[in-house]
Amino acid sequence: LASLCPAVTDPTQQAFVTSAKAVLDGNWVTSMNSTLPSPNLYPHQWSWDSAFIALGYSHYDTHKAIAETDALFRAQWRNGLLPHIVFNPNADESYFPGPAFWKIHTSPAHPLNSQTSGIVQPPVHAIASLAIYNNAKSAQQKKLAMHHLQSVYPKLVNWHNYLYNERDPLKENLVYIRHMWESGMDNSPAWDDALNAIQLTPDQIPQYTRVDKGKVGSHHERPNSHFYDRAVYLIKVFYDNSYDEQAIFKSSPFLIQDVLFNSILARAGEALADIAHILGKKQAAVHHREQSAKTAAAISSKLYHAEDGFYYDYDMVAKKLIRTKISGGLVALYGAKVDSTHLNSIVNHLYDPAFLGPDLSSYTIPSVARDDPGYTNTTYWKGPAWININYLVRDGLLRNGNGNEDAVKIAKFLKTRSMSMLGAAGFYEYFNPISGSPHGGHQFSWSAALTIDWMC
Ligand code: 2M8
């Protein structure tokens, strides 16, 4: 175990990083070899949470970072699908939808030794595995990390191949999500039209009982039943089609090419290329880099709306861009390498009062523009600020912001503000973007893990 964050010497900052580590320690479940997103709300392993968590561990505990990643990939489906939840067999009843609801045995590709969901989440994993290697300090840690790259590389390739082969039927280099939970931004207003278009009679909705509502400050902070009815209905569409992607593509009423998901995929493709390079697989590295560049280019061509100067999701069922400004659109910068016009338009949006305001006076980035009719201060992905979004947008601004003083200034602001907000409020799940007040689950792992990644 490396000493935690040798670069941080200020005692107050050291205490802050130590408290972030305590959150991860508290959420570690030895029997699963993985970390819960939050002890009160999420009793299983979540896919993109795990990748963010591994980024945090990579700075001081290579072993745990690898264990976390391995636990997730042990549950990978035989067709490459990396499930969004790996269920903890000791916590069956405490989360809905639990393992039985997904009926994953209807798929010939389901994993044999794990209970999982049947959907995915944004593919941050190659980025985390590369960080495990890059952040390993001692010779012994580097050796462990090298073994990790060797063993995880083919699994990462299967994961990305699954996305490109199964989720991009029109060969546009953009993959689709087929459930709101796949976006990671569950009840974003961006899905409202698509969800309202799903007309259901009561007998079409599988019977279900939620268990989340009593676990947060106010149940209004969680998604409503209109959302959950459609969330469970879509799961039925999947198992009724035996999780066959071609059949799902033909019959699913929810198919969306999401900016955040594809942007992370593009960036993860670069990480995969770097991993292949480290492993001496030169040809493969070239292939991964080309694939990543194609996705990045497709984001900028198909998902950018020139008049609005914003990146939007594309609804493949309604066949149109969803012109709702969500913070996921700003994450385009994380994966795509954008030209100065596109960068300036994103910087202008960040300076708009609907996001941060001209003097960066808003507390932090709302998940939905504040002038959107679907915006609220405290309801989950309908307005509140999230640390992972601040993290991804900041990184995207720095990556594209060469020579653009405003981009660098906003990037700096996002880190300072995120750290002061977490310092004042604690490692919560999400925050009121105007006041910084904390909401949702407490001791939230990715808020802690990304703090460690930022500080160390
Ligand atoms: C939230 O999503 C889950 C469903 O996957 C839920 O609402 O029950 C989202 O914030 C998602 O991005 C996150 O991965 C998950 C666990 O933190 O919680």
UniProtKB/TrEMBL annotation:
The keyword Transmembrane applies. The keyword Transmembrane helix applies. One of its GO terms (cellular component) is endoplasmic reticulum membrane. Residues 42-447 form the Mannosylglycerate hydrolase MGH1-like glycoside hydrolase domain. Keywords: Glycosidase, Hydrolase, Membrane, Signal, Transmembrane, Transmembrane helix. One of its GO terms (molecular function) is Glc3Man9GlcNAc2 oligosaccharide glucosidase activity. GO terms for biological process: oligosaccharide metabolic process; protein N-linked glycosylation. Belongs to the glycosyl hydrolase 63 family. This is Glucosidase YgjK. The chain holds residues 21 to 476 of 580 of the full protein.
